[in-house]
Amino acid sequence: MEKTKNVLLAHGSGGKLSQELVRSMFVSELENDLLNRMDDAASLNIGGGRLAFTTDSYVVSPIFFPGGDIGKLAVCGTVNDLATSGAVPKYLSLAMIIEEGLPLEDLSRVVQSIKAAAAEAGVQIVTGDTKVVNRGKADRLFINTSGIGVIPEGLDISGVNARPGDVVMLSGSIGDHGMAIMAQREGFSFQVPVASDCAPLNGMIAAILAVSKNVRVLRDPTRGGLATTLNEIAGQSQAGITINENAVPVKDAVRSACELLGFDPLYVANEGKMIVIAGADDADRILAAIRSNPYGAEAAVIGEVTAERPGKVILRTALGARRVLDMLSGELLPRIC
Amino acid sequence: MEKTKNVLLAHGSGGKLSQELVRSMFVSELENDLLNRMDDAASLNIGGGRLAFTTDSYVVSPIFFPGGDIGKLAVCGTVNDLATSGAVPKYLSLAMIIEEGLPLEDLSRVVQSIKAAAAEAGVQIVTGDTKVVNRGKADRLFINTSGIGVIPEGLDISGVNARPGDVVMLSGSIGDHGMAIMAQREGFSFQVPVASDCAPLNGMIAAILAVSKNVRVLRDPTRGGLATTLNEIAGQSQAGITINENAVPVKDAVRSACELLGFDPLYVANEGKMIVIAGADDADRILAAIRSNPYGAEAAVIGEVTAERPGKVILRTALGARRVLDMLSGELLPRIC
């Protein structure tokens, strides 16, 4: 592709161009040890303790969808990003950019949903900001939530920590969120309705950390899907990751919808799933802990970390072939989160 | 005014309707002790220490203007909000919502400006997020910065603390930012060019706190201007505030521009000014500390806190008359920050 001079939709896909933009424009210019690590949450040493700090803007369209809305998404997404560092999420900020003309009733529904999600996750909204822009200068509602969590002493969970011999687990089926948004946006109806999996996973992660001291990586496969997130981890840790296609849970309705629309579920966004990479000896008890959580009933071991093919993700297909599973390139589905 | 069912531009003005929306929709629903206080930064007790946490989204149009750009504004605004709690600003998050088609060169200029402002303020950008929305669904670039600062032990600075007998100081002239944006947006040119005062004020605040233990309130008069911010403080503290019109510094060029356009400089936004309310005995040394800072040469005592007219701001005019100075009502200048 010719080098572009303008920002493309794919720069926000979570895939290759996103990584390129973030590395070349942001991390290289603003660089410091914390930013350079490129985890979902930065880990800060403050006053003897360690804090996790993260931010995400949500621009999902439409703002209401089966299984959630932009408010629930904004709370769960940031809670999950904090939890992926092993932190206990505590405080969230809430900043809204509202398009003039948004019905106050819609805003109120979103706030109710934020309230419910925050209560479920056990976090407080402690500071906020409201901006309004003229009609046509935004699209209904954009939300930024930033979050602070407390990292328990002795924990070091990061994408850099995956090591050969570790097992790769996934907390449930993939592609639900992306296909739910797609169906809602385009007015498709599937035989079996697909709902977003949007959920706060900090309870699940607390249960995992309670049964294992050998958790290396926690990461939620959002934009770019499972394939892209695994590639990020492989890149950060410079280990190889092999995944068994057969082992990755995909709901029938999601699989059919993906086939119909030409999507690969491995690249479709999730908002309530967790990748857990841990020492093999602890796999059984971690799996049991995940499955005991309401959002983890379908958890499965989906692969392993290898010494071969460092930095790459390999897919062992249903037929036994092996192929390199790359990051998302281009844009699959804009404004998914 | 008839009760509206939709969000209006004035809901984002920083004035009366903003307050109403924030109170009725956000604070009442998401309420907790920290949010209810309604300071610019929340003060969190974590691990023995106290942290300040704040968030702001920036939607200023145009994104480049005399004296700064949206990047410098996003760093300075959040640094200043942290500093108003007495905190030493430490870590910022950076989340961008980019409209498809933004020239990468413009994005790069903004990032350079963020880098320079962060270096001057002594803060690190430690975590970030990038979203891209389709052409026409945002306006070039919106930025959210959230920030964490450390509050030194023993400090309690808040809008609730103003008390009768305190003096009200202002670090310099008002209206510069608002009129600079206005001129740039509308293509006006004034005889003497007006530039935004956008600047990080944490150095100034450190100097103030080094010479006085009787600082009650620090607040930067941004959206809604000096008049609106003083009203917020009067409301929070339930004290009266009297201001001498003659004592409030306004640059000649800003005054002329305001007269021409029918604006009252008391309601025009600032991005590099600080209101300091402190015990009267410390006024001289605080004033000296502010004036010794590069951004505080024109600092002045502009009024006092009174027991009479609790919750109200009174303006003593140049001719000696007194009138109630209300919050901004309606919207003066949308997308000023």
TrEMBL record, chains A, B:
Alphabetical list of Pfam families matching this protein: AIRS (PF00586), AIRS_C (PF02769)
Q: Which Gene3D superfamilies match?
A: PurM-like C-terminal domain, PurM-like, N-terminal domain
Database matches in InterPro entries: HypE (IPR011854), PurM-like_C_dom (IPR010918), PurM-like_C_sf (IPR036676), PurM-like_N (IPR016188), PurM-like_N_sf (IPR036921)
Which part of the chain is the PurM-like C-terminal domain?
A: 163-314
Show where the PurM-like N-terminal domain sits. Answer: 39-151
Q: What family does the Swiss-Prot or TrEMBL record give for this protein?
A: Belongs to the HypE family.
Protein name per the record:
Hydrogenase expression/formation protein HypE
Q: Which organism is it from?
A: Candidatus Dehalogenimonas loeffleri
Gene encoding the protein: hypE
